[in-house]
Structure formats: C-alpha cells, structure tokens
C-alpha cells in the first residue's frame, strides 16, 4: 500500500481502458446524505442502522422501518449530486469516448449517481425509490409512490404491505447486478474505490477480487479502511475534493 499521490492515481486512470468505479455512502456525504454508519439523529437516535436494515426489523415493526426508509427517500430526493458524482460521470463519459469501459458499481441507495447523469449504474443494494409489495413482489413505478407516503406502514391497493426496494442484511444481492459487478471487477485495469468502509460483504469482496485479478486499486477516503492495504494508491481526502482533481489531471491534455 502507498499513500500515493493524486498524480499517480491520475496517471493510472489516463492509461486505463477498463475501469470500475465502486462507491459507498462517503461519496454522497458532501451532498448531505448521512453515511450509513453516521450517528442517527432525532427519532432515530436510539437505533443502529444495521438493526433497522433487516427483514426481521421490518416484520417486527413495519411502521417504524417503513417510516425510516421513507424519511431517507424524501431526504435523498432534496439532496443534489456533489462534485464527486459529477466527476465520476465525466470520467465514465471520457473513458467510453476513448472506446474504453467504465462500470459504475454503487452500494448506495440514494439515486444520486443517476441524477448526476451516470449510465448503467449497478445498484448492488437496491434503491430507496423502488418499493414493492411484500407478498406480491410487484415493484411500483416511482410515480405510483407518493412522497411522502400518506400513512405507515404503506400498503398497495390490495392491502399488501409495501417494503423498500433495498437489500437488507441477511438478504441476497440481486443476482444479475452482482454478476455484472463481479465480471467487471475481475477484468478491469483500474478499480477506483470511493467513500466506502469496505466492511459489508459480498460488495466489499469486489475490491479483493479486482486486486487479485491484477487491477490497480485506488482508494479515496478520509480514513483508512480494511481495503487500504490492497490499494496501489490510497488518498486520504474527501471525495468531493479529490475525485474531480484526479479526473482533471488524468485527462488534462485532452488528447
Ligand atoms: C448477504 C441497503 C448472503 C440498506 C445495505 C449473518 C447473516 C447474513 C449475512 C451476514 C451475516 N454476517 C455477516 C453477513 C454478511 C453481511 C455483512 O457483510 N455484514 C457486515 C456488517 C459484517 N452482508 C449481508 O447480509 C449481505 N447479504 O450476505 O447475502 C446471505 C443471504 C442470506 C443468509 C446469509 C447470507 C447484504 C448486505 C447489504 C446490506 N444493505 N444497504 C440500507 O441502506 O438501509 S449495506 C449499507 O452498509 C450501505 O448500503 C453500504 O453498502 C454498506 C457499507 O456502508 P458504506 O457505504 O461503506 O458506508 P459507511 O457508513 O460504512 O462508511 C462510509 C465511508 O465513507 C467511511 O469509510 C468514511 O470514512 C467515508 N467517508 C465519509 N465522508 C466521506 C467519505 N469518503 C469520501 N468522502 C467523504 N466526504
């Protein structure tokens, strides 16, 4: 692992033809979306996120859990993509213009990458904006879902409980999404990990996979993580400051 420099990271990206960008909630922190392990405030102060993000928690108290997710959905809706989201979209566009491949894999459920114009975003842990019938599995279209819900727990017209379209702890990730992320991570030149604590599996395993398949791992995080030793370049810094700088330097010549 080296602390490395932004210049080193930029040089790796400039030469790369196959890139995976892997993001966690740290990439949305500067948009005002609390990271997953941020201390929860207000009504949620006495809860641990992980304790609420399970099927058991929902079954035990569907009103409490659906209210938490709906508050997060409404909060994310009024947040704006930040400079890191915009730079990642720019990176994706530039690499694809050069006939390369830039796969964006996110653990986030806030929808900010899509709102920043990114394409083909792989949402490993689902989305706050997709709700579905607990029994029927029917996924509601966003325009079928009031913001906020009128009552909790929300139900569809048949009376079926509605649950958020996120992946809870103990639930399997969407197979197609994870397979696509696995394929991209095992065949990329550069794996750019931004704003994740790298502790939740199987998502965090993608970093090890990329590294073991010969990719150069670049990490952007104010703190060290369990993935730091795998990084060829590990940059201690905020995504909103570091990521735009890496992308600017990587393609400065504009060739
Ligand atoms: C699974 C959606 C197979 C929901 C999330 C027992 C039973 C079953 C499974 C397990 C078990 N024990 C362990 C497991 C595996 C478990 C797991 O990994 N647990 C961990 C905690 C040990 N995983 C699962 O359960 C997964 N499924 O294994 O299925 C299976 C199936 C059945 C039975 C057995 C096995 C499902 C995991 C998905 C959970 N859902 N999200 C919701 O959002 O409510 S995970 C959630 O945490 C987030 O989505 C995110 O993906 C994840 C990690 O959070 P981060 O994004 O990294 O955020 P965090 O707050 O942790 O860190 C923020 C980082 O940003 C920090 O490093 C910080 O320094 C940095 N930062 C802060 N500011 C900035 C910044 N970086 C840059 N710039 C800044 N400005």
Q: Could you characterize the architecture of this molecule?
A:
The protein is α/β, with parallel strands linked by helices and 255 residues long. Helices cover 34% and strands 16% of the residues. The chain contains 9 helices and 8 strands. The chain has helices at 6-15, 49-52, 55-60, 62-77, 83-97, 112-115, 175-185, 205-212, 239-250; strands at 18-23, 101-106, 122-123, 126-133, 162-166, 190-194, 216-220, 233-235. The two termini are 30 Å apart. It binds ligand BV8. Residues 24-26, 29-30, 35-37, 53, 107, 109, 125, 166-172, 195-197, 199-203, 220-223, 225, 238-239 line the site of ligand BV8. Ligand BV8 binds at residues 24-26, 29-30, 35-37, 53, 107, 109, 125, 166-172, 195-197, 199-203, 220-223, 225, 238-239.
List keywords for this structure.
elongated, two-stranded antiparallel ribbon, alpha/beta, 255 residues, binds ligand BV8
Brief summary:
The chain has helices at 6-15, 49-52, 55-60, 62-77, 83-97, 112-115, 175-185, 205-212, 239-250; strands at 18-23, 101-106, 122-123, 126-133, 162-166, 190-194, 216-220, 233-235.
């Amino acid at each position: 692992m080296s602390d490395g420099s932004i210049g080193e990271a930029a040089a790796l990206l400039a030469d790369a033809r196959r890139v995976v960008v892997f993001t966690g909630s740290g990439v949305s922190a500067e948009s005002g979306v609390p990271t997953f392990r941020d201390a929860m405030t207000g009504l949620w102060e006495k809860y641990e996120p992980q304790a609420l993000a399970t099927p058991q928690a929902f079954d035990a108290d569907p009103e409490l859990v659906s209210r938490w997710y709906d508050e997060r959905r409404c909060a994310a809706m009024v947040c704006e993509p930040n400079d890191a989201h915009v730079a990642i979209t720019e990176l994706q566009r530039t690499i694809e213009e050069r006939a390369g491949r830039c796969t964006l894999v996110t653990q986030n459920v806030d929808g900010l990458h899509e709102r920043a114009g990114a394409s083909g975003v792989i949402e490993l842990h689902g989305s706050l904006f997709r709700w579905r019938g607990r029994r029927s599995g029917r996924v509601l279209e966003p325009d079928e879902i009031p913001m906020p819900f009128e009552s909790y727990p929300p139900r569809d017209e048949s009376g079926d409980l509605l649950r958020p379209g996120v992946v809870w702890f103990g639930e399997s990730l969407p197979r197609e999404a994870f397979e696509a992320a696995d394929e991209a991570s095992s065949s990329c030149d550069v794996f750019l990990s931004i704003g994740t604590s790298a502790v939740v599996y199987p998502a965090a395993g993608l970093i090890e996979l990329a590294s073991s398949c010969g990719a150069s791992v670049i990490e952007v995080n104010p703190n060290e993580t369990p993935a730091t030793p795998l990084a060829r370049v590990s940059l201690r810094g905020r995504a909103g400051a570091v990521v735009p700088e890496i992308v600017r330097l990587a393609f400065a010549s504009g060739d």
